[in-house]
Amino acid sequence: MTTEATPIFPKLNVEEEPELGATEIESMCMNCHENGTTRLLLTSIPFYKEVVLMSFSCDNCGFQNNEIQPGGEMAPKGIRISVKIETPKDLNRRVVKSDFSSVRIEELDFDIPAQSQKGEVTTLEGIIDRVVRGLEQDQPVRRIQHPEAAEQIDAFVGRLKDLKEMKQPFTVTIEDISGNSFVENPLAPQPDPNTTISHFVRNKDQNHLLGIFTHDEVADEKPTKPAPIPEEEDNMLKMISEGAWPLEELHGEVLQFQTKCPECAADCETNMKVTNIPHFKEVVIMATVCENCGVRTNEVKPGGGIEEKGVRIEITVRGRVDFSRDVLKSESCDLRIRELDCEVGAGALGGRFTTIEGLLTAIKDQLVESTGMFMDSNDEATQHRMDSFFAQLDAAIAGDKPLTIVLDDPTGNSYVQSLNDDGTPDDALRIIRYHRSHEQNEELGLNDMKTEGYEDA
């Protein structure tokens, strides 16, 4: 009889995880240097992946400190979130920021450098309050020793407090090289017109700051040629010798390789298969099933390169007759449901090969997971809007509500099956090919790509 292992980072749900508890460690107080107590809680929070919540308290002097640190993998790219604050309600937006988040208030030309504050779950108003408290902390001494500097700080604190009273709109920009920061969208699941989110590739120094190094950078000496490993003991992926696997046999073979579960980090196997989608192209389908925690993931990669043109596919979902359409959504494909005014970014659902019904179900599951973090603290209007949206989405999944789904893929690597096999036009399917903009080519890294004469560079 095998015992199911407990995840290292259980979900933050009291009903599902009744035994979720903190670990207590005796540690030194940095205020009075006596012994205090540090409590650690490892959990998984939507939007923020795995986190470590830390709380310190000292019974001797009363000092307390709370921190939050990411416990999972770093995001592949950094994130930049720019929010325009126009109403007092915008100050209540929830914020998750890591240690590597820098905050800038554009109108005041004021920056909070990265690693100057610990990671926390707060609000936009809470960020301003923390800055005010930090500036006012040494003001009594400063007014005696440096009265001119104290007067300037008092004036700047007054400007910060004016922001909280919303005497004028202002913009807050959060930049996080770890990619693990988030600002709440109060209009979810509709897009937020006051928020701009962009991702960027980290440079070498930023990777080093996060502790990310290449093998060449950490090697102390030139690598020596390893001793040959017998083929029966070599479990690493190797290049296929020429002629060993004809293309026809590769299409019919399911390859397996060892990997780690994305949820519980247990050892599991990923199945990979090359398949050909009729009237489209070859794709690589990868599926992972973890026997330890039961999580199932699937991912689709295009077998070829980026197409010459982008593609926009519009599908009119009339009911269950369209639910069985095969859909290939690449990682770079944005999705929109017009009737629900719902937009799902390219990175939200990832690349997947599914059906229209599976796509709608995945959207619902994604939104339920992503909004669950703050669902219990939403105001009545937000709660009503979310309930109304999910009711309409459930009606669409049941086939009772017609929808128009728009897939916009600048790489051209997305596909929706036509229900007419005889080659006649499908009235419910509209495909538009377009030339990518300079910004789209820049995001895909095509503007600086050199495909001819690169040997001379």
From TrEMBL:
<feature type="domain" description="Zinc finger ZPR1-type">
    <location>
        <begin position="27"/>
        <end position="185"/>
    </location>
</feature>
<keyword id="KW-0862">Zinc</keyword>
<dbReference type="InterPro" id="IPR056180">
    <property type="entry name" value="ZPR1_jr_dom"/>
</dbReference>
<dbReference type="InterPro" id="IPR042451">
    <property type="entry name" value="ZPR1_A/B_dom"/>
</dbReference>
<keyword id="KW-0863">Zinc-finger</keyword>
<dbReference type="Pfam" id="PF03367">
    <property type="entry name" value="Zn_ribbon_ZPR1"/>
</dbReference>
<keyword id="KW-0479">Metal-binding</keyword>
<feature type="domain" description="Zinc finger ZPR1-type">
    <location>
        <begin position="259"/>
        <end position="418"/>
    </location>
</feature>
<comment type="similarity">
    <text>Belongs to the ZPR1 family.</text>
</comment>
<dbReference type="InterPro" id="IPR040141">
    <property type="entry name" value="ZPR1"/>
</dbReference>
<dbReference type="Pfam" id="PF22794">
    <property type="entry name" value="jr-ZPR1"/>
</dbReference>
<dbReference type="InterPro" id="IPR004457">
    <property type="entry name" value="Znf_ZPR1"/>
</dbReference>
<dbReference type="InterPro" id="IPR042452">
    <property type="entry name" value="ZPR1_Znf1/2"/>
</dbReference>
<protein>
    <recommendedName>
        <fullName>Zinc finger ZPR1-type domain-containing protein</fullName>
    </recommendedName>
</protein>
